[in-house]
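User: hey, got a sec? need Amino-acid acetyltransferase folded
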Amino acid sequence: MTDYVNWFRHSTPYINTHRDCTFVVLLPGEALAHPNFSNIVHDIMLLNSLGVRLVLVHGSRPQIEERQTARGLSSHYHNDLRITDSDTLACVMDAVGSLRIAIEAQLCTAPTASGQGSRLRVVSGNFVTAKPIGVVDGVDFHHTGEVRRIDRKAISRHLDEQSIVLLSSMGYSPTGEVFNLACEDVATSTAAALEADKLILFGPDAGIFNAEGQLLRELKPTRAQPLLNALGNSLPGSLLSAACKACDKGVRRSHIVSFCDDGALLTELFTRDGGGTLVTQEAFEQIRTATIEDVGGLIELLRPLEEAGILVRRSREVLETEIGQFTLIERDNMIIGCAALYPLDDSSAAELACVAIDPNYRHGGRGDQLLAHIESQARVMKLDTLFVLTTRTAHWFRERGFVPSSVERLPAKRASLYNYQRNSKVFEKTL
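Assistant: Yep! Here you go:
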């Protein structure tokens, strides 16, 4: 079970960022059958106790197949969708009903952060209106359907009452028919209808891996097609496809995490780098110009370097005055790098100053990214020379084309401000 004491100690700064947010969580049938599911339930209960609005969507594929096998039935698919005839529908209803009861029972007995798990309300019902897929390529799908409408108002009302809403992979038509739905379809449609802040998809792996076996921490839908082709109709492929569709429908962020690893959900949500794969249209990490709202974050980044004597100390007032000179690297709303460009009066030169990268994010090429951005900015400003003054990082700048210079090479006004007590070495680079 997740060590909640240690988790709270390390994650307190991030907790309030998710309060009152709406998360749609997809739990495929494979997750429900895994021994770690009880730990996932504890994590879900914790999110609820922190004020997160939760909709759980559960699948049932392996459970349906178990019932088919027990009854001597075979599974039939077309275009990766199960063909649900009348006998299969009976298996679907049996599996979904049993799973719903089992999930509700676990949610009602699992302890929350306050130890009052039995007071949690879990609501399920006919929130999903479905329609038949019909006949495709000459194949009759019978009782297999797709989402037609999500009862957004009803679900929102229950969420406002702090209930957890539980949806299955079944939907109902206005004429009283029952349809077997893909759980991914229910999850993405629900997330889009509710304008959810996040769609969380549990899979068998830590996330999505590239061809070299490396976990992809962030992925844009436009880059996903080769991975989808490689994954095919596997569960990871289905989850990645659902994440991409959710982004196309306006869901800002989808997270693919492991149902096998205890604490994977909390790690993904409450640590800066997460533990799974984030699928988003937005830039998770970006380089941008600083604004006055960034002063507090800059102070947190620069203070340790100033105390160590690596950077010249800048007061809040100075940073507020000079904030327009700064370029930042921002990662998930946290400033992890910066650099400043100061054009020097009466010259075509500028000073590069205050280059800093958060210690946790060094060795990732971010300093080079900042330098390239600053150099590009200087060229646009018609500058031809960059000066830098440093006491501890001379080798870094020399490796990037800066050559030793002198105070005398600085424009007169900047040279008059040189701090001989600090004794910084001067380097320059021709652009």
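Quick note: Confidence is low (pLDDT under 50) at residues 7-13, 113-118. Let me know if you need anything else on Amino-acid acetyltransferase.
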